[in-house]
């Protein structure tokens, strides 16, 4: 895909949604970090329900440590893998307090050193809490980047590195959210909505879906 097409794709995604953001509800870098840890293999909606309960009683590392692992589990037990997530969150809070004065670090290496925080989570926090031009390649972005031809790659890291290199600078900061939302609602895994896709004429996917024939033409 050439630069003109890539630019046109992001211009269209920007016109449709000038200020995209995450669907996770948060009011501080710490809340976002916890929500992202909880979101592995869970829906944003499910995470938001649990964090609404949790953050009402504990939204700082010290407060979650005071809840303890069992107390934390009580608040997040509706979320898949809550046992291991609770363990990681407690240990993460302990390290935030002991190593970072209770503050989420704006630094990839320090973030990735926290339990339950991998490259993807660090990228989300750096981008969404701190405004860094990082791109966290999840299943949606991986699919959209490969299908459209925006950034073809065999692994999430390869796609991330290509996107960071190829997305025009003016779109880099918001590219993450435009691509996730596009993958979640339009370029869906099983049935991409190509007939209603705003970038269909720019997308290089070879197996685009067709519009269903209308009732009249079916009966004609
Ligand atoms: S045209 Fe289809 S495959 Fe291409 S981005 Fe749009 S929905 Fe996805």
Task: Compose a concise summary of this entry.
The chain is an all-alpha fold and 220 residues long.
Task: Kindly describe this structure.
[4Fe-4S] cluster binds at residues 187, 194, 197, 203. Its EC number is 4.2.99.18. One of its GO terms (molecular function) is class I DNA-(apurinic or apyrimidinic site) endonuclease activity. Its cofactor is [4Fe-4S] cluster. Keywords: 4Fe-4S, DNA damage, DNA repair, DNA-binding, Endonuclease, Glycosidase, Hydrolase, Iron, Iron-sulfur, Lyase, Metal-binding, Nuclease. With 220 residues, this protein is an all-alpha fold. It has one domain (1-220): Endonuclease III, domain 1 (Orthogonal Bundle). It is built from eleven helices and no strands. The chain has helices spanning 3-16, 29-38, 44-57, 61-76, 82-100, 108-112, 119-129, 139-148, 156-166, 169-185, 215-219. The chain is elongated. The N and C termini lie far apart (40 Å). The model has no long low-confidence stretch (mean pLDDT 94). Residues 147-148, 186-187, 192-194, 197, 199-200, 203, 205, 208 line the site of iron/sulfur cluster (SF4).
Under the CATH scheme, which architecture would be assigned? Orthogonal Bundle
Helix content: 55-70%
Quick one: overall form? elongated
By CATH's scheme, which homologous superfamily applies? Answer: Hypothetical protein, domain 2
What share of the residues does DSSP label as strand, in percent? Answer: under 5%
What are the distinct ligands in this entry? Answer: iron/sulfur cluster
Query: What would CATH call the class?
Result: Mainly Alpha
SSE string:
HHHHHHHHHHH
- In total, how many domains does the architecture comprise? 1
Low-confidence stretches: none
Q: Distance N terminus to C terminus?
A: 40 Å
CATH topology: Endonuclease III, domain 1
**Main beta-sheet annotation:** none
Structural class label: mainly alpha
Number of E strands: 0
Average of per-residue pLDDT values: 94
GO biological process, one term: base-excision repair, AP site formation
GO molecular function, one term: metal ion binding
Catalytic activity: 2'-deoxyribonucleotide-(2'-deoxyribose 5'-phosphate)-2'-deoxyribonucleotide-DNA = a 3'-end 2'-deoxyribonucleotide-(2,3-dehydro-2,3-deoxyribose 5'-phosphate)-DNA + a 5'-end 5'-phospho-2'-deoxyribonucleoside-DNA + H(+)
Organism: Halochromatium glycolicum
């Amino acid at each position: 895909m050439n630069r003109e097409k890539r630019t046109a794709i992001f211009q269209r995604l920007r016109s449709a949604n000038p200020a995209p953001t995450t669907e996770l509800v948060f009011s501080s870098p710490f809340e976002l970090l916890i929500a992202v840890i909880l979101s592995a293999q869970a829906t944003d909606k499910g995470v938001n329900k649990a964090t609404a309960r949790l953050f009402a009683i504990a939204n700082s590392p010290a407060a979650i440590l005071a809840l303890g692992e069992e107390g934390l589990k009580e608040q997040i037990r509706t979320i898949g893998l809550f046992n291991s997530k609770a363990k990681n969150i407690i240990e993460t809070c302990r390290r935030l307090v002991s190593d970072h004065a209770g503050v989420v670090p704006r630094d990839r290496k320090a973030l990735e050193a926290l339990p339950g925080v991998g490259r993807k989570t660090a990228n989300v926090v750096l981008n969404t809490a701190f405004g860094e031009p990082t791109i966290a390649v999840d299943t949606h972005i991986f699919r959209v980047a490969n299908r459209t031809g925006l950034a073809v790659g065999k692994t999430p890291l390869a796609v991330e590195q290509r996107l960071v290199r190829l997305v025009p600078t003016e779109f880099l900061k918001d590219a993450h959210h435009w691509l996730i939302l596009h993958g979640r609602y339009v370029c869906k895994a099983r049935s991409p909505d190509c007939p209603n896709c705003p970038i269909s004429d720019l997308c290089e996917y070879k197996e685009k879906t067709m519009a269903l024939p209308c009732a009249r033409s079916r009966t004609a």
